[in-house]
């Protein structure tokens, strides 16, 4: 199991926690994926607000990062089997790469 796999498993084991996600974001940045790391950090920040009350600049940054990924292709499944690709029509209030769920939310 790679470090990335172990970090994804920690997220799956603690679906409501930000700490595993933020540690994973740090790992992504250190391993050459800073945009994806920032996307996770932005979604964690958005999750701290009541639904629909996040500052508009955060929401816009989330969608800018999503658009960046959409134009560059999809993410792949990690060896743990956790899907970390944006899936059209998915709706999740926070990043959740486990169990075949998408990391992203829809507008």
Please describe what this structure looks like.
The structure is a single chain. The chain is mostly helical. The chain has one domain. It has helices at residues 3-13, 19-30, 34-47, 56-72. Helix 3 packs antiparallel against helix 4 (56-72). The longest helix has 17 residues, at 56-72. The chain is flat. The termini are far apart.
pLDDT averaged over residues = 75
**Rg result:** 13 Å
Number of domains: 1
Distance between the termini: 34 Å
Secondary structure elements and pairings:
Layout: H1 3-13, H2 19-30, H3 34-47, H4 56-72
Helix pairs in contact: 1-2, 2-3, 3-4
Descriptive terms for the model:
single chain; 107 residues; mainly alpha; flat; disordered C terminus
Short description:
The protein is an all-alpha fold.
